[in-house]
Amino acid sequence: MIASEIEACQYGDEQRKGRAVSDTNSSKRPTIYDLAELVGTSPTAVSSVLNGSWKKRRISQKLADRVLKAAQEHGYTVNIQASVLRRDRSNIVGMILPKYDNRFFGAMAEQFETRAREAGLFPVITCTQRDPALELQAAREMLSYQVDYLICTGATDPDQITDLCRAAGVKTLNLDLPGTKAPSILSDNFTAARDLTRVILDACERDFGGGAPLMFIGGRSDDHNTRERRHGFLEAHKERGISVPDHLMITNGYAPEKARETLLKMADVPNGIFVNSTITLEGVVFWLRSLAPERAAQIRYGSFDWDPFGALLPQNVGMVRQDVSALLDLTFRTMKDGTEGNTMQLVPCQLEMPTV
């Protein structure tokens, strides 16, 4: 390891080589020079043990054990941020998430962390609440920590993040929502929404007779995924010669309270409802609880995204479950291959039917 890398392994401010070993009452943390003096070896050997390269440098197991024991006993900690500034790669990979409050994004964060660590990378995740300004701020902070790669999950303006990162020489990838300047990996929203709509229409035809349109509720009209799901929803109706009036296409946000308020104000809600998010589904469930039992029993719904509790309700006829594992398989493969440019890859979803 070169001298600058050795210095970067110190905790906090860089210390002079040869500084006396701190006594037990000192508030200062030990450096590799302190450890070298304690063990009776060179700072280079200590650095090699701490960074895991000691076997390649033919350092004995006995010496390595002594260094590690001393480091543990004296509370040695690596200054990672200083260290990465001395290397070409930090092995840090970042992810920007819009929300933690549904199972899809929660599973995405959890599996991403696991896979990153298995690949020898250090994952850093931050939530930006679907706020473009906060997304850009988060990207700047990621760059300050020398991330090697940044994954923008559900970002409202991924292109501005790509521009910022590209200027810093850092690659990005768009996950869940697409951009136009970096590779995009997302679920096949159109096909899944069309298939789910068919299931809801079949249930309504079986139980109440066919020919009536469903309601679409949830999401934002300017959101790519919502547009694709609306497209699939309308295509399934078109297949059966059913037209959907505009007042049944409700895209006033994902918030549960908006869905509940909208449904409470409607004089005549259709028997079949396509719910465009498990977040929106919370509002639909609160509305269902406000109905008389006989009316609630007449509702059939399907939800884009899966929730185990929503799946247990008697009104549920099907739920779309996005394939987080397949999405992340493609993500890590794209990162490894170094793919760039405006490419888009679609991942099929799974249709979960209620068990009887």
TrEMBL record:
InterPro entries: HTH_LacI (IPR000843), Lambda_DNA-bd_dom_sf (IPR010982), Peripla_BP_I (IPR028082), SBP_2_dom (IPR025997). GO terms for molecular function: DNA-binding transcription factor activity; transcription cis-regulatory region binding. CDD domains: HTH_LacI, PBP1_FruR. It comes from the Bacteria. Pfam families: LacI, Peripla_BP_4. SMART domains: HTH_LACI. Residues 30-87 form the HTH lacI-type domain. Keywords: DNA-binding, Repressor, Transcription, Transcription regulation. This is LacI family transcriptional regulator/LacI family fructose operon transcriptional repressor. It comes from Donghicola tyrosinivorans.
